[in-house]
Amino acid sequence: MIMKSILKAFLKALFIRTIIAIVVFTMAYGMLAADTKAADFGPDPVASAGSIDNGMMREVFDAANEILAKIPANASERDKVRLFHDELCRRVRYDYTQSSPHMDDVYGALVLGVANSHGYADAFKFLCDSAGVFCLLVCSETNAWNLVELNGELSYFVDVCWDDTDTYDANGKEYISYDNYIVNKSDLEKNGREHVAAEGFDWYTGYYDPEVGFWERNDYKMSGFTYDGVYQAFKTQYELGRTLLEVRYDNQAAYKEACEQLTRNDMDMIWDILYGIGQVNGYEYVRWECNDDTMTFRVYLDF
Question: For residues 295 and 248, what is the distance between their CA atoms, to the nearest angstrom?
Fold first, then answer.
């Protein structure tokens, strides 16, 4: 997993970003929500390697509608953002070959199911626009991600591409990470220079409400290591159907203690926690991972 993450980051750093012509995007987004502003913070756009005609746009709408139809009644903005994040992780795979003609646009992501970071970000914005969630596209020289408005504040970052692990358990269920989901600018940039926006993003104030942030709101981010804290976080995530369980720390001392305590003696503490939440039935294999950049500890469940 670590080697795959390194390869994924390396390939993302190699590709030269291209996006679909502005006139096509204006048409596409306008057909969904005429009053929604589209924005691109980064290098000047150049012509895409592929082009989207009207017939292809119909395919895009059909694919988008399959996802939009899953929005429950009275869904909040957070509910919609979570749905779009997870659906794209499941439906799209990263283009490691960097050869798909639509890897960097919404057609590649939603219809072909193959994209680079720009394609993921375009698809996420496309879905948000159509569901009435204000969303911007943000770019660096080598990456693209999104900024979404929640609770009236345009302050929360989502990078679906970097959360798509492209790895699965034995039953074919994908491990979905939330490393870059509704996070602040500081946490996002911990994942590397690829998340430092290009010129034109100076207006961002950095306001961030922890009560809105994914990790803080759910008590998945902690200041100190405790058995009970990890137990409760893993229990909540498991009950939500997740097979990739994560906790994050806001300081190095707590993070290092967590990694040491949770992995010592053949992972005795991890197994104790997993037995406690009733997860072990049916699962035979467990592997762990420490992400030093974001100070996140992960456990992957497998059959």
Answer: 6
For residues 13 and 119, state if they share a domain.
yes
- Residue 249 maps to which CATH number? 3.30.1710
Cross-strand partners of 137: 40, 146
Same domain? 151 vs 286: no
| Eight-class DSSP state of 277 | T
Give the single-character DSSP code of 110.
Answer: I
Is the domain of 173 the same as that of 257? no
What single-letter amino acid sits at 92? V
CA of 187: how far to CAs of 102, 123, 142, 169, 280, in Å? 30, 23, 18, 27, 32
Radius of gyration over alpha carbons of the chain, in Å? 19
pLDDT in tens, 141-173: 889 999 999 998 888 999 999 999 999 887 888
286, HSE (Cβ side, Cα atoms, 13 Å): 21
d(CA 15, CA 266): 40
User: Over the stretch 51-71, which tens digit does the pLDDT of each residue have?
Assistant: 888 899 999 999 999 999 999
Residue 51 sits in the same domain as residue 134: yes
Can you give the residue range of the structural domain that contains 286? 221-302
With bands split at pLDDT 50, 70 and 90, how would you rate the model's confidence at 3? very low
Q: Is the pTM of this model over 0.85?
A: no
